[in-house]
Structure formats: C-alpha cells, structure tokens
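Hi all, posting the design record for the shared folder.

TITLE: backbone redesign
STEP: 1 of 1
STRUCTURE INPUT:
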C-alpha cells in the first residue's frame, strides 16, 4: 500500500512504543519492543512529548521496522507475510525520508530521550528472539507483534496529536495515524490467513 508523502507508517510510532506488548499478561509489557532500532542524536531524559523527542522516536521506530521486516522477508514461510514485510520496508524507508525532511522544515532536531533509549535496548532483544524462530512460529510471533504494537502506536499517536502545537507536525501525526490504521488492518487480515492453525 502506497502512502502519501507526508504519511509515516508505524505502527507503529514515536515514544509510542516504549513498551509494545501483547494482550496476554502484564509480564508481556516488553515482549514486542522490536519495532525500533538505533539512531543517534542528542540525549535528553525529560520532556518525552516534545517535537524533538517525537521525531527521534519516529526515526527509531522506522529503522527498527525496516530491520524486522527485512528479517521477515527472508525467514517467513508464508508468501503473504513476505509481501507484507516488503511493503513495510518500502513504506518505512519513505517514512524515514519524510521525518528527516520534516525535521529540517520545522527546524527541530531529533532528540534522544529515555523512552527512545528503552525502545532501542528492547528492540535488539526481540529481534534476537525472532531470529531464533522459523516457520509457523516465526509467522505467528511476527504478525502478533505487529498487531499489538500498532494498537499501542495508535493510542500514543492520539496523545501526540493532542499535545502537538506545531501545525506541520500535527498534520504529519494525523496522516501517520491513518497509515498505521491501514497497516493494522492488513496485519490482522494476515493473522487470519497465514498464522491460524
């Protein structure tokens, strides 16, 4: 699915996914944080909802989505999952370009923060777990994590939209919300077609 130039996917997004989780138990709060990957900027511990922090978390999210989706492209035994993963790679590369363009346009430097640090640390752990899986187990884990993290992303995007005072950033967040919703629906459809047994 092609996104508008301003659209960011992600599911899942921003400081959003400081703890992507499953819906099974509170112990799973950090089970699906792999939708993030490293990108280094200045580090600030506070003001998690600032534009700079939102942009940094968006960057990390997209880099991690690309990494995880590239893994799914090679490891998944389901052609539909591989196709979905290829779409994620394409869309998140587009997202990275848009985030960096927006950062320059509004004059806001992406800012490292405590949420982003947690995203970075947990994502590597989940990625390592996914690498150990194969076949149906991989398909199931990959798709479930996409679904749950997208739900989390939508909730956090709602908060970011409410907090934003920059018109261009707000427009970006709203477009992203729509894109995340579409990707969530695709992942839910995949869960029914490709991971049920």
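Okay, here is what came back for every position:
SEQUENCE:
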């Amino acid at each position: 699915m092609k996104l508008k130039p301003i659209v960011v996917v992600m599911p899942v997004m921003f400081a959003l996914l400081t703890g992507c989780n499953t819906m099974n138990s509170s112990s799973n709060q950090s089970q699906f944080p792999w939708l993030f990957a490293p990108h280094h900027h200045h580090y600030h511990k506070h003001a998690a909802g600032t534009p700079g922090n939102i942009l940094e978390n968006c960057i990390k999210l997209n880099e991690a989505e690309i990494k995880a989706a590239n893994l799914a492209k090679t490891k998944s035994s389901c052609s539909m999952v591989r196709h979905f993963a290829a779409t994620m790679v394409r869309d998140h590369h587009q997202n990275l370009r848009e985030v960096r363009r927006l950062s320059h346009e509004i004059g806001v430097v992406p800012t490292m923060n405590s949420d982003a640090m947690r995203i970075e640390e947990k994502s590597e752990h989940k990625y390592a777990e996914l690498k150990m899986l194969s076949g149906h187990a991989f398909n199931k884990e990959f798709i479930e994590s996409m679904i749950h993290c997208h739900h989390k992303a939508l909730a956090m995007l709602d908060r970011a939209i409410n907090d934003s005072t920059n018109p261009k950033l707000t427009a970006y967040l709203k477009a992203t919300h729509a894109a995340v919703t579409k990707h969530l629906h695709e992942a839910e459809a995949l869960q029914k077609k490709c991971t049920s047994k």
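COMMENT: The beta strands are 42-43, 111-112.
Let me know if anyone wants the other runs.
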